[in-house]
Structures are given as C-alpha cells and as structure tokens.
Protein 1
Amino acid sequence: MFQHITPYAGDPIFALVDAFNADPRPQKVNLSIGIYFDEAGKLPVLDSVRHAEAQIVAADGPKPYLAMEGDAETRKQVQMLLLGADHPAIAAGRVATIQSVGSSGGLKVGADFMKTWLPEAQVWVSDPTWDNHRSMFEGSGFQVNTYPYYDASTGGVRFDAMLDTLRTLPARSIVLLHACCHNPTGVDLTRAQWDALIPVLRERELLPYLDLAYQGFGDGIDEDAYAVRALADSGITFFIANSFSKSMSVYGERCGALSAVCADAAEAALVLGQLRYTVRRIYSSPPMHSARIVSRVLGDAELRAQWEGELAAMRERIAAMRRALHDRLIALLPGRDFGYFLSQRGMFSYTGLSAAQVDRLREEHAVYLIRSGRICVAGLNTSNVERTAQAMAAVIGS
Ligand SMILES: Cc1[nH+]cc(COP(=O)(O)O)c(/C=N/[C@@H](CC(=O)O)C(=O)O)c1O
C-alpha cells in the first residue's frame, strides 16, 4: 500500500538530540535543541509548577473533554499575559484565543485556518527562521517565501531590505514574525523598528502572524510582549501563537495557545468559531492537565510571583553564560569579535560557524549545535563553558 512513500529523513534538530544521547563521550555538550537546562545540566521542574501540580492532584476530580477552544480560565490568563491585564482589546472582546497542543499545535491550527479563509495568500517567513515554520505552512498547502532578515555582515537585521520586500507583497499576505528572542539568530527588531514596521503592515493590508515561544527570556515578561501590544494598539488584525514549554519548563505537557486580535468583537467571534472547527478536525480538544498547570501558575498570586522569579533566574543564567563564553573566546582568540553573544537575546545565538566547523565541533570535541551555526546558550553551564570555548577556539582558529 505504501511502498511508494519517501522515507522520512528525520527532523534535523531532534535527530541531533538522538545523536547526542547516543554519544558515549563523557565530555559531550548539548547546545542543539531549544530547551533550558539548569546549572547542573538538567531539565528543571519549576517549584511553581510543582506546587501547581500538587494542588491539581489534591483537587482530584474527573477528566472530561475540554471544549475545542480549551479551558476558559487558561484562555483568559493567556490574553492577560500577552496583552497586559488592562489592554482595551480584551475588554472590547476583540481577542479570540484557543488553548492549543503546544504553540506548534497553535501554529498549525492557525495555518489551516488561514488556508481555508485566505486560500490565495502566500506566507513570508524571516531568512532564517525556525526550521519547522516552513514545513508547517507547506503542510497546510501554502507557498512559503522568505523576507530578508539576518545580516551576516553586521550581525543585525536587514531592516530596510525587510521593509522593501514587505512593501511589494499582495494584500492579505501572511507575514510570520518572531515576537522576541528570534530563532535561530537571537537578533530581534528594536522597538523603533517595530514602530516602523507596523505602518507598513497596515498600508499593505498584510496579516502578521507572531510566534512567541520565549516570552520572559529576552528582557522580561512584559518587555518581551512589546510587539504584541504595539500591534494590538494599532488596530491591525493579527495572530499570535505562544508557548509555555520553555517559560514553565513543561515541554512534554504541550502547553500553548493561539490568539487572534481582531478589528472588533464580531470578527473575533467569527474567528473563534472557525478556529474551534479547525481544532475539531485536527485534534478535537486540547489537554486538560496542561490547562490546569498554566491557569494555576498564572492565576494564583503566590504561584505567579514564584514563577516570575524562576523565569527571571533562567533568563539571568542564560545571560551569565553568554558573558562567560564571550569572555573566554575573546581571551582565547584576541582580536576577534564575539560581541554577538552579548547583543543577541533569548536562548539562541547565531555563531556564524560553517556547517563544516559545526561538524568538527561535534566529531572532534563532542560539542553539539545545529548545522546552521545556532547554539542554544541554555545548554551551557559553569562545568562545560570552558571546554566549549576551547573547542570553538580550536575550530575557529585553525
Ligand atoms: C520559534 C518557536 N516556535 C515554536 C516552537 C515549539 O514550541 P512548542 O510550544 O513546544 O510546540 C519552538 C521550539 N523550538 C525548539 C524545539 C523544536 O525544534 O521543537 C528549537 O528550535 O530547538 C520555537 O523555537
């Protein structure tokens, strides 16, 4: 029946994790997948999540299907986290939010929704972007294009070229934007650049589709939502998929959401209805346990304060590892510029290493990063940052 199908080559990121796990070398370092590891190199269970789960277990009770759009309290908490509790768009009923199976599930539901209701639209993603964006949208039947983004010569954003491209797009084109902590580059638009971008999105009647997977890992929870709130203030209709995988360290619980900020409550109701229908025909309804974790951590004042503190600690540890790697590399390779480790934000840094250099790091030094040259800084700790610096210096310097 299926002898004709193409063997799946595997996902480049997850295949690398499998290779890392199989590597017997004790000094191996995993800087590949976008997961936060703590100082001990372990995937943490946050105390705020642990306490929320204790409350969930104590509360016991049945586990009925959730509604297609997910848990109401979770959806309300997501809107307040993204927009700020007092944003007028919430009170006006302009926001349609579904709880989703991770933000990946949200991104996919949004893509299928857009293909149904904007069938002629094409999608533009940043060059480069998260590997899975392209395959998600192609899987929904879209033609996927790129807009200029990362400038390898400066380590910044090709902002003028980005705007020039967006100014050529047909109305209703879908523009995927990283709200903060760009994956894979760690290079974000400044607030001034967002303020300059929004009028172009409006003039061209484009559909911004934001991906916010690392809220709190840039400058802070509210600071990292600047783009979301500026777009909501602008009155443009836009979508945003957000994730709690990293910020609550609940990767396998699949905690995410998809929101549409619409022109008015009537449009939001229409969008919510069709999002519900789209969910029904993909996974029918989202997971209950993930809703209970998210709604308790965000909704309970004590757990919320504890979570914000734990998220700040993760952010600060990543910043410390950026500084540590930077300082060792400039000492090992005087005269070379590693400032990008300090200017880039979030979990990732784009090292500019070639695929061949990445292969050498893995093969000769057991240091794993993806072949684009992206490293997950959260994989560094005080026990492995020295040998990572030595390995990078050996590869770069030779
Ligand atoms: C930008 C972005 N969006 C969505 C996701 C998926 O989030 P979730 O809510 O768990 O479905 C990831 C995961 N990125 C890391 C892991 C992966 O590739 O899935 C990564 O880039 O390594 C992203 O980096």
Note: The pocket of KET is lined by residues 13, 33-34, 102-104, 130, 132, 183, 211, 213, 243, 245, 251, 256 (CB under 6 Å).
Protein 2
Amino acid sequence: MKVQMLGTGSAFAKKYYNTNALFYTDSHTIMLDCGITAPLSLHQLGKSFNDIDALLISHIHADHIGGMEEFALQMSFIFRRKPVLYVMDSLVDQLWNSSLKGGLKQEMFNTLDDYFEVRLLSEDVSAKLMPGFHVRPIRTSHIPNKSSYSFLINETFFYSADMKFDPALLEALVQEGCTTIFHDCQFASPGMVHTTLDELMSLPSYVQERIMLMHYDDNKVDYEGQTGFMKFVEQHRLYSF
Ligand SMILES: Nc1ccn([C@@H]2O[C@@H]3COP(=O)(O)O[C@H]3[C@H]2O)c(=O)n1
Ligand SMILES: [Zn+2]
Ligand SMILES: [Zn+2]
C-alpha cells in the first residue's frame, strides 16, 4: 500500500494545498478527502477524477470537501460514470443538504445518489472499501457538536484528518500495532480545534517515532528541525506502509 498526499497544508495554507490523500492498493486508488485544492493537485500529478475508484470523507469543512462539486460534475458530464463515495452515516445528509446541494441540484439530479454510488460507513465498524483497503472510522473531537472522523487503515496506518489532541487514543493505537500515524499539526497554541506541535512533542518517543506531520501552516520552514522525533509529510511524495 502506498499513500501520496494531494496536499499537506492547513485550511488556510497557500503553499502546501489542502490536506487530502491518495491511497494506492495493487488495483485501486482511493481518495481521502477532496478539498478546494484537490482538483488542481490531481491535475499537477497528471491524473484526472476518472482515475479515482472511491472517495472517502472525514468531515464537512471546505478543505476536505470543497472539491467535491467539481468531482461530481466532471464524473457526470465528462466521464459519465458514478464514482463510489464512502461517507459516514452521520454526515451524509449534511453533506448534501448543507454543502453540495446548492451547486449540484439541477434537473434530474436531486440527491447525492444521482452523482455518486453512496456507501455508508458507521463509527467503529471496520469495512473493506476495496480489495486490500480496510478502514475503521473513529469519531474524534474537532468542532463542538459536529461529527468528524479519523481512520485506521489496514489496522496499521492512522490518519487523523482534523482532530484535537487525544494522547490516550494515540497510545492505544500504537499498543494495538499501529506503525504509522499521519497527524494534523498546528504550530500556534492553543489548538482549539486541532492538535498543536507542543502537544505532539509531549508524547513519548515511541509514539512520536511513528508520527508524520500534516495539515500545517505556511510557516513550516520555521519549525524544521524542531519537531522532536516527528517528520513532516511532503506533498506528492510516495510513502509505503
Ligand atoms: N471553532 C473554530 C472553527 C474553525 N476554525 C478554523 O477554521 C478552519 C476550518 O478548517 P479546519 O482545517 O478544521 O481548520 C479550522 C480552523 O483553522 C477555528 O479556528 N475555530
Ligand atoms: Zn482541515
Ligand atoms: Zn476541519
């Protein structure tokens, strides 16, 4: 399995694009989140939306779903194929009614199912999304009273998406055999809705060693060499796990 980030920046970063990922199995490509910058990043990789076999969504912020309107429109009117959309049962109604409907509702296209082959996921229920790609969605804390999910992939790779610091979860994941953690990292404190670098630096070395930092601000250069045992994930680089 390989992972390649379409972007590694925070919601407001301009240099590093939105934190969205492509996962490559032997036979399929799965996109995890499709933010505002995802269409341009895909294009820069020489890919199109037609190369994506399934999209998985963590939560409803524009840096994670802002590219979905273009995804849906290109697939319907250019490629004429319905892509698979994996979405949490707690997010599916809001995704359409609060985020996508304004741009996508038109004659003959009245629901999310008219654009995507929608498959629902439930919290803490492991699911096989594609051959060789299993995911356990874990509800994590991000914005008060809004659902947001992190994902444990193939029982060894944890992708935080956006979450507040949860050291007990990270330590439990490592105890259970998780070898790689792609974690959001905000440089300035307090974190409020994200995990800060200072919080991650408080983790024991055996946890830090597994962490790669993403969802960072444009001033990343100021923090290079100051991230303990943790390294930065880089846009478009291929990582195997
Ligand atoms: N209570 C909140 C809510 C949102 N935000 C900022 O808005 C961004 C939305 O995308 P994100 O990646 O979740 O990061 C959020 C914060 O920067 C924030 O700083 N505080
Ligand atoms: Zn975000
Ligand atoms: Zn968010």
Note: The longest strand covers residues 133-139.
Protein 3
Amino acid sequence: MPFSLHFSPTPLITAPSPLSKPSFLVPYYHTLHAPKSPLCSSMEHALTHQGKQEAFDLRPEDSQTLPLGLRRDAMPSHVAVIMDGNRRWARLRDLPVRSGYEAGVESLRKIVEICCKWGIKVLSVFAFSSDNWFRPKVEVEFLMSLFERGMQEDTGIFFRENIRISVIGDLTKLPKALQELMVNLEEATKNNTLFQLIVAVSYSGHYDVVQACQRLALKAKCGLIEPSDINVSLMEQELETNCTEFPHPDLLIRTSGEFRISNFMLWQLAYTELYFAQSLWPDFGEAEFLKALLAFQQRQRRYGV
Ligand SMILES: CC(C)=CCC/C(C)=C/CC/C(C)=C/COP(=O)(O)OP(=O)(O)O
C-alpha cells in the first residue's frame, strides 16, 4: 500500500508564545530549542533502513475485510485503553516484572495494527500514570527505557504506515532524552493521517483538568478572555486531548478484571462506553478486541437525551 512520508529530518519548531503553555511547563519547552538531538538521527536511520518490524499488511480501508459481524459504519473513532495486568501476567509465569511490560508492548503493537486495519482513527493508551512515579525506582527506570526503546524501534513503522504519534501528560518529569524523542516524534508525524496513537505518560485526568484551568487562568490574567467566557468549549481547547480531531473516546477498554477508571481522561470520558475485559493486557489480542468492539456496537448511546 502506498504511504505518505511527511517527515522532515530537522523538524521546524517555532518558539511558543508565553501563553501556549503555563509557566510550569516552560522547562519542557526549553528542550524544543536544544540542538538537533541524536534521537532525530535515529529517526533518519529508521527511515533509510528497514525498522525492526515488518510493515503492516495494510490495504486501502475499503478493501479490508472486517471480521464477521463487525460493522464499519458503527466503528468507534477513538478507543482508549487502560493496559492493566502486565505485572500479574509476569508473576503468574514466574517471570520478572519487566517481561510483563515487554509482553505489554507486544500486545499494544498488535492492537495498533488492528486499529489501522479496521479503520479506528485514534487509540489512546494509559502507559504511565502520575501515580506510577511512586512505584519502585528500578521499575520506573525500566518503564522509561522501555518507552524510549519502543518508540525508537517503531519509528520506521510510524512513517511507513502514516501513523501520527501524540504524547500527553506532564513530560517535564521524564528523562530529557525521552522528552526529546517524544517531542521530535510528535512533530515529525503530526501530518500523518491514517491513524493516531496517543500515549498518556505521567498523565492523570486530574493533571489534565488542572493544567487546562491554569492555562485559562493565565489567559484571563493577561486579559485575553473574561472569566465568564470560560465554557466547555474553551476548556476542551486547553485539555491535552486538543491534539486530536476526536478528543472524546467512544469506547474505553480496561483489562485485567478491574472495574475502575483510575484517573484516566476524566473529562473526556463523560459519554464514553465502558468495557471491562478479564484478560491481562499481554493476553489481550485480536479475539478479545473484537469482542469489545462487537459489544460496543450493540450499545445504544443516548448522551442523556
Ligand atoms: C512504548 C509504550 C507506549 C509502551 C507501553 C508499555 C506498557 C504496557 C505500559 C503499561 C504500564 C502500566 C503501569 C500498566 C498497569 O498495569 P500493571 O503493569 O501495573 O499491572 P498489575 O496491575 O498486574 O500490577
């Protein structure tokens, strides 16, 4: 299948206006002005050499056969996932915790491929919550290295398959190299149109609402808006999901048999259909995803009307 390359090896990032991010995010924006990082070069490498993985078997959407019973006209545009149960998966097999997370990445890759094939436009995944910083240091460091490795290894795929990557959350807390990788990848893939993967890292619903309020307060303080102007639409313009055309997930899937939202996208989930799967995330594959989508397509969404 033909794919579009929109990658510019030295992404042009213009200086943000003082209002584009609140002051507590300024250190993050400083990283944008750093000289071209070696991570940019790794993207160039991934483009000129075949990446680790083979490209997906993607054909134009219309010629893709959907599994029996799944309707294209009722497909969710945006699916959000709480990828729970990685450590339990590892413990059940007497494996180290890191094997559970690694298996979780493989599961994520499979689900991304399926979304591309079945015409889902956006997938948001809760990869690391604001509370996960309190996990053992060695585990946190492993996860950071896994994000870096995962994103580097798949850079080629993102370009070949026309996939846009967006990262939401308080990135200032991440290691500098990872921040740069994420910012560069977001910038370099921002015109890709087949599918958007939103990775929530150092993210919580509370964080998102608070940072949006801070940005609105700053605009009011500078006289750009009146406090009475603040409404749902202005609020949504400041939430981190302003990176996507479909900011409200249609379907939220949580794996591992837990029935909680755990501070994920609290505002955005207002009318989302919830689906809880028993499988641990590394076991969540095509059959389970299909079950969730079929269940979603049975739901009647009334939006309170
Ligand atoms: C590159 C990229 C985006 C990678 C994503 C990697 C990944 C699967 C992250 C999930 C992290 C996480 C804290 C899951 C929660 O389940 P848990 O592991 O805490 O499971 P438990 O409930 O069994 O303890």
Note: Residues 1-53 have pLDDT under 50 and may be disordered.
